């Protein structure tokens, strides 16, 4: 999991970029009988962009490092140095001092073998990782249109064809979904993307494919860790999630993370303070009053029927819903009316006119609403879903089951949608 879900950040060379609930089950003798993992909020934005001094997920660099034994695979997947891939060459850092990506890749292969991954599964997984790298290198040229907005076309079809081959989809079909969308129902009506829209479509496919791959790997690990007669009678759960976050610019992913931390803080307050006090009172035991900060008001602001999260969902359901109208409605609803809501002053945060504030248990955080709705929607266009669901690879098809239209795994914001 670390190879696919951890990355170098400015503060940590092996930072976990997803949350997880690990369940360890025991038999009647106290011996471990099985386990399971539930993932939460993989940081999808990292797949296509990294800040200065940081890296993408470890597995990309490990696969490229490989080693002599990995040369045939690297040749087949057309892999080169990290600096040759757009998704790895943005931050100025491709190597971690004191760490051998080649050795780490050997460990990943050993772990997959221990977890009973078949050689076919391993080939599928690394092929998809390579496909994401090649997708990131797909470029676009402007197609001038004198009667409507300019369109786009793939400028390096050899690269897009390579990605299509690895995903087992048609070359022309991939180019089509990258540069246009179908708005027709019974009759196909294609609307061309501009260059920026085409790049966004490329990145959306990359994020969805990698996120679904990550979920598929977790599911496969769970298959190995499970046992036929697992019971919840003897189980220890360990929750490992991101801590409270507050950056210069905070977005939807920080709101999700901090909401989760608010819930944990409330749980802590409830069980360590409030419920204990009730027990003492019921038993007639006098203890000094314990002063703790109650964060119920903040949770009400976030999750009430007309709270922030509900208002985001409501705005998505409106045909012309937009980030700025969501913000306007939010400010009209809560400015000066709720103790945990803050409308930023011009110098309180960057781009204050695009922000709202929440007074959390750990401090006030201002959130920039840019792309809030799209990150919460977290969907792929049906054209893209249809292409991936009709892939010639059973593994790729299994990542995008027909009954699931989410488009990027269970990402609810995806920590970077």
UniProtKB/TrEMBL annotation:
Pfam families: Myosin_head. GO terms for molecular function: actin filament binding; ATP binding; microfilament motor activity. Keywords: Actin-binding, ATP-binding, Motor protein, Myosin, Nucleotide-binding. One of its GO terms (cellular component) is myosin complex. GO terms for biological process: actin filament organization. PANTHER family: DILUTE CLASS UNCONVENTIONAL MYOSIN, ISOFORM C, MYOSIN. This is Myosin motor domain-containing protein.
